[in-house]
């Protein structure tokens, strides 16, 4: 089955839903930067177990399909599925172009348990050259209540750090635009 039309339609549906419908503000949280690697490599770094474990998390499981789960753990001593596991549901994806996720189970100690229910993330990958990829991380669904505002600050620094770590992973590669 060719998933491209399904993914495209789902992407259009998601894009047409107003963040306000979810009780969210209209200001997405955006982080973007150039990564010195081909889009294929950057895509794999985000969407495969080996890729994620090479720079982002200690442990990862990912079932890359609409409705699939991306489960990660930052603690090498932890176990996927324990109380500290982050579980995201994959909402949509287009290989080497974008994927969107929503937290379906936050770690038990996550400080924003109500606000996280309304938030989702889209990661875009754009070819800059054969050796460079523009990555754009967009967080949506932040409300205007205190918990949501604090969570927005949390993801503002967290997403900036994530992008920086991704750039560092590929920093030794030559950036050729």
Keywords:
4 helices; 177 residues; alpha+beta
Describe the model.
The termini are far apart. The protein is an alpha+beta fold and 177 residues long. Strands 1-7-6-5-4-3-2 form a seven-stranded antiparallel beta sheet. 26% of the residues are buried. The protein has helices at 4-16, 39-47, 49-53, 146-169, and strands at 29-35, 59-62, 69-73, 86-94, 98-105, 120-129, 132-140.
Q: Helices, strands, pairings?
A:
Layout: H1 4-16, E1 29-35, H2 39-47, H3 49-53, E2 59-62, E3 69-73, E4 86-94, E5 98-105, E6 120-129, E7 132-140, H4 146-169
Antiparallel strand pairs: 1-7, 2-3, 3-4, 4-5, 5-6, 6-7
Tally of helical runs: 4
Mean pLDDT: 88
Overall body shape: globular
Contiguous uncertain segments of 5+ residues: 5-24
Radius of gyration over C-alpha positions, nearest whole angstrom: 16 Å
Strand content range: 25-35%
State the separation between the terminal residues, measured CA to CA.
36 Å
Task: Give the class from helix and strand content and strand pairing.
Answer: alpha+beta
Question: What composes the largest sheet?
Answer: 7 strands, antiparallel
Helical coverage, percent range: 25-40%
Give a quick rundown of the structure.
With 177 residues, the protein is α+β, with helices and mostly antiparallel strands. It contains four helices and seven strands.
């Amino acid at each position: 089955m060719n998933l491209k039309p399904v993914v495209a339609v789902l992407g259009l549906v998601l894009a047409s839903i107003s963040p306000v419908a979810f009780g969210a503000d209209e200001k997405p949280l955006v982080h973007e930067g150039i990564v010195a690697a081909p889009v294929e490599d950057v895509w794999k770094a985000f969407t495969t177990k080996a890729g994620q474990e090479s720079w982002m998390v200690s442990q990862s499981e990912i079932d890359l399909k609409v409705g699939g789960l991306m489960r990660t753990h930052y603690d090498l001593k932890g176990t996927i599925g324990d109380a500290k596991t982050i579980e995201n549901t994959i909402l949509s994806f287009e290989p080497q172009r974008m994927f969107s996720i929503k937290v379906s189970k936050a770690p038990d100690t996550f400080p924003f348990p109500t606000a996280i229910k309304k938030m989702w993330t889209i990661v875009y990958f754009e070819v800059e050259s054969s050796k460079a990829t523009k990555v754009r991380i967009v967080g949506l669904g932040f409300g205007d209540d205190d918990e949501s505002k604090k969570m927005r600050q949390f993801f503002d620094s967290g997403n900036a750090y994530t992008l920086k770590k991704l750039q560092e992973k590929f920093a030794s590669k030559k950036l050729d635009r």
